[in-house]
Amino acid sequence: MRALIVAVLMIGLSSSARVAHAQVPSDGSAGACYAYYPDPRGLPGRPLLPLMFSAGARWERFDFPWPLFEPMPGVWNWQNQDALVSDVRASGMEILGIALWTPNWAASGPCSAFAAATLDPTTALRRTNPEAPILHAETLLPQGAANAPCATRPPQGLFEAWDDWTTADGDPINHWGRYVHTLVSRYRTQIKHWEIWNEPDLAWFWSGTAAEYAQLLKVGYQAAKAACPECTVLFGGIAFYAAPTFYTQVIDLLRADPTAATNNYFFDVMSLHLYSRSSSLFDVTTTVRNAIRSRIPDRPIWITESGVPLWDDFSVNPNSTPYIWSARQREAAAFVLQAYANARLAGAERVFFFRAHDDWCDKNNDGDCADAGIDHGMPELYGLVRDNLTLRPSYTATRLAATYLVSPTRVTFWNYAGGGRRVTFWGTPHGKVSVFWNTVPTTTTATLSAILPTATRINQDGTTQLIAPGAGQTYTFTLPGATANNGLSPNDYIIGGETFLVIEADTAPPIVQLNLSQPQPPTITVSWSGQDAQTGILGYDVQRRSALTTTWTAWLTRTTTTSATFLPTQPEAWCFRARAWDLAGNLSPWAERCAPTTRSTQIVITAVFGDLDGDGTQGATEPTLLATLRLRDILGQDVVSPTVASTWALSLTLPVGQYSLEAHPEDGQGWLSRSLTLTVSLSLEPLIVQHTFALPLRQHNVFVPLVVR
Q: What distance lies between CA 209 and its chain's CA centroid?
């Protein structure tokens, strides 16, 4: 088992800058594994918790081993775990608990039972901590199904109903359902996230089948949700490479369950364990997301373990030499930044680095880890912190990641022709942050168009430099070659070269305005504009929705246009909203307006008269007339009852559209009718119409008598 971490403290800046940036809170995307340990030096307290919190970790992930809490049926032992949970929560960390391992008495056979001494802190099956032991996976490696440790076996009664806890019905108890319900109920006010087992695709941890794990997850989900409906349940972290189809087999089995859709397919979050190759955090996460989407509705992905073992820390292991999947300390620091950037680029919500400290297995420092009763712990060096609490370069890199690679509005990437890679975090609390590294062993260059007169470069060791662009407002960077080639061959570089950040510190969002008009009903014209004081406008997002729903639909995304027309297919009100992006990725708040289907209208006819001279103005000798006054819609229907008068005043609310305002004189008066086309357009302001009807004289035939002389 292994995991990742992230942080929020400035490194290597002036004291004033450090204070300002330390105030930016973590976005909660970073976590640590096994930071709860007592002081490795034998002193009081749990010093790794504040160290990890200072590095930006807001999550602690550790085991809740069933054999420890229920060593015999119905005999519970929670005291030490209660104290541990309280200490972790008091440190400010959220807890991701791992529910796992089967007690000897509950295991389905055949299996190799643990002796009672298994849980004794002096045995090799304990990693180190008498308060909350972690069973040591390396000692549980099955030698075949018949010899699989009972801890890795499916529990008895697993295929009974999750809440079948009695034998009175003539069938077995679902021991796993009872355990998970008891566990989650006990800690429901302190722990809201539970991972069901660890790496079930590896026989070291799960010697059952994919179908049995699907049932384990289903039962665990139902039991956890019954105990704590608001809790989140994670698929057990997948190691992926050893059995790359295991998780899809499980999902396919869960999908076939008739109750799956109503139970969110029995898991809320997918979790992955990805090690040593920094590119895998993008590649595998993307592969898994696509596989999920092709089967069931999408869901969050968490990287609940990530890291790389070290081979060159001779202060801890003087006999170490390079081996496959291992790295130097400076390469591990580069891994942290690259892995975190790639994971967030792939849409992973959280990343946990494995692990807080080494818990190095050579406890008596005699050069080997094989001394029975003395040596226990990890046979590889993964710690961000050494057991003597000195910090490794990867700890510094973690603080950088957690400080700057947080709360982006979006994340993008660019691969350069020479092997360089850039991942950009837009709109962070520090501005636009770009992460640069080289994926190949040959030194190369990368360029970046400047959006401000200066930027800050931060190297992976935390040193900083104020930089200015060169000709053409472009930065040119030299990217050192990759050196971590302990992969599948000497030409397989599992981690890129030394990594650095470039921060362009525009954090002020733009301002956007939105306007609606309807010059040709029912078509709606939507226009928008924006202002940005520092880097300028990059583009706009525009969305629309019917007033009958609360769901917004994307209309235009990062467009550079500033207007568009919309023709409704139904006579209903529509709402529109727009926001602006600036060149640093900052987003304005949404500007929203709804297009009403009606408009308050006032119509005043001041006079109807006979226009003898045709000048449109009533002269002293031109008569005031009575006429039938009508207001009709585009279909010719009267909007209000006609009236016979020489003046008319109306106050009403009219649907958007075209109308005819008409004056028809009484027959026989010798005057012609007149009409006015009235357009009621989209506006929040009242429409005021004032009109005088000047009726022209009807032209009659004139007969001249013929006089014969």
A: 32
CA–CA distance from 277 to each of 306, 339, 513 (Å)? Answer: 10, 8, 46
- Please determine, looking at this structure, whether the domain spanning 15-406 carries the CATH number 3.40.50.620: no
Strand runs (DSSP E) across 104-211, as ranges?
193-198
60-87: average pLDDT: 96
Q: Show me where the domains of the chain are located.
A: 15-406, 411-504, 511-595, 598-696
* Predicted local distance difference test score (pLDDT) of residue 700: 54
Residue 404 CA to residue 420 CA, distance in Å, equals 21
Angle formed by the axes of helices 329-345 and 393-404, nearest 10°: 20
Which residues 6+ apart lie within 8 Å of 11 measured at CB? 396, 399, 400, 403, 458, 462
Residue 127 or 697, more confident? 697
pTM of the model: 0.82
Residue 326: predicted pLDDT: 98
Select 598-696's CATH number: 3.40.50.300, 2.60.40.10, 2.40.30.170, 2.40.50.140.
2.60.40.10
> What is the C-alpha separation between 244 and 249, in angstroms, rounded?
10
Helices 210-227 & 175-186 angle (0-180, nearest 10): 40
pLDDT tens readout for residues 616-674: 999 999 999 999 999 999 889 999 999 999 999 999 999 877 899 999 998 777 899 99
Cα–Cα distance for residue pair 405/411, rounded to 1 Å: 10
Least trusted range by pLDDT, from 119-123, 262-266, 580-584, 634-638:
119-123
Tell me the fold of 511-595.
Answer: Immunoglobulin-like (2.60.40)
In the three-class reduction of DSSP (H, G, I as helix; E, B as strand; rest coil), residue 569 is classed as coil
